[in-house]
Amino acid sequence: MPARADLQDINRIYHTEPSLAAFEICQGGGCAHSDMLQLSQPEWENVLRIFTSQSETAEQERARIAAAIGMLEDIVGTKTGTAADRAGTFGNSEYQHQQDCNDEAINSTTYMRLMQQAGLIRFHTILDTRTRKFFFSGWPHTTAVIRENDSNAEYAVDSWFYDNGHPATIVPMAQWKDGYIPEDSPIRHRE
């Protein structure tokens, strides 16, 4: 994987309004490669089913956001070759179509923006990505972020900890900033 992020592509993708007919997905580490995609109505209906009944609490909405990100990774993975994306970054260089945390953070933000446009996210506001320092081997780590509207509590929305298609991990930002890694994450055994 490239060691540096393609900041121009990341900035462009991050500031482009996605739609079901046209949105861009990053892969290759630091958005070294991007794909312009669209979702069919049947594909989007798979996501809508996760939100069949309206969320009654912010906590319920976060669980649905996490599941929807996993679903969208599955759908998108078959189109981009990222279906076999493995958790983490290090030790995955021999695998094609891998995503680092920058790719995952941008893609998760794009997915949440699509959900927000459809009125599926009501209890949260999508914020800019955040980075924590000195993760594995001194490398920084980036995540998507949401803020609960009523409490102003911020949450990391991190899809990097598990293989493609697994629900995103959503934890309080302070916990994530402290170096949080889920106990059952494959990266604990690979990194």
Describe what you observe in this structure.
The chain is α+β, with helices and mostly antiparallel strands and 191 residues long. It has one domain. Helix content is 35%, strand content 19%. The protein is built from 6 helices and 6 strands. Strands 3-4-5-6 form a 4-stranded antiparallel sheet. Strand 4 and strand 5 form a beta hairpin. The longest helix has 23 residues. The model has no long low-confidence stretch (mean pLDDT 88).
Quote the beta fraction.
15-25%
- Portion of residues in helices? 25-40%
Instruction: Report the average pLDDT across residues.
Output: 88
For the CA atoms, what is the radius of gyration? 15 Å
Structural class: alpha+beta
Span between termini = 15 Å
List the total number of helices: 6
Topology order in helix (H) and strand (E) letters: HEEHHHEEEEHH
Task: Give the tally of β-strands.
Answer: 6
Can you tell me the residue ranges where pLDDT is under 50 for at least 5 consecutive residues? none
* Structural shape: globular
Q: Mind summarizing the main beta sheet?
A: 4 strands, antiparallel
Structurally, the number of domains stands at 1
The largest beta-sheet arranges its strands as: 3-4-5-6
